Amino acid sequence: MDINTNSVLDAASTKWNFLPFKPGLVGGHCIGVDPYYLTYKAEQMGYHPQVILSGRRINDNMGNYVVSNVIKKLIQANVNVLSAKVAILGFTFKENTPDTRNTRVIDIVKELNEFGIQPMIIDPQADQEEAQAEYGLTFHTLEDAKDLDAVILAVSHDEFVAMDTEAYEKLFKNASNDSKVVVDIKGILDKDYFEEAGYQYWAL
């Protein structure tokens, strides 16, 4: 419906008991894994916990959903998908932690690989040795990120939140803005700025 998620959350937050759950990929163990123990036991006892399983199913498919929108935006930007230069900002399972265990960002990486895209992954806080051992990935730095076609903001680390719009603009190729893709999974960027500047912008 092209309704800004943060606008909805701001409006709903005027209700005194509203819980403002933010957009993003849900990884880690407490939410990403533990519910399956509960659903397993519940089904053993003859109860089918539809709400829990539905939430897990949506989360498990979120990487596919994000990448399908990345590909759509690359096509709209007239960028050759096979040669697209894409960076993912953030790899940990949540912001401001080095923990990469059960991160759902890996789903985005794998799905991009299916389209022939080898994304550059940038995470100044992630445990690099853990990521190499667990996923076989090597990270890059923000200084390495140049001449990009698309930027996917996956984790809202303080370093990425502190970047202004000019810092994000410098990550892209020197081309018209309508050929540049910005995917804001966490909804922290200035949506109005990027849309008015003509970028191919998409957010959860």
Written overview of the protein:
By secondary structure, this protein is of the alpha/beta class. It has a single domain (23-203), classed as Rossmann fold. 38% of the residues lie in helices and 9% in strands. It contains nine helices and five strands. It has helices at 5-12, 34-44, 50-60, 62-76, 105-114, 128-135, 158-161, 165-169, 191-196; strands spanning 86-89, 120-122, 150-153, 181-184, 200-203. It has a five-stranded parallel β-sheet with strand order 2-1-3-4-5. Helix 4 packs across helix 5 (105-114). It is globular. The N and C termini lie close together (12 Å). The mean pLDDT is 92.
Overview in brief:
The chain is of the alpha/beta class. It contains 9 helices and 5 strands.
Annotate the secondary structure layout:
Layout: H1 5-12, H2 34-44, H3 50-60, H4 62-76, E1 86-89, H5 105-114, E2 120-122, H6 128-135, E3 150-153, H7 158-161, H8 165-169, E4 181-184, H9 191-196, E5 200-203
Helix pairs in contact: 4-5
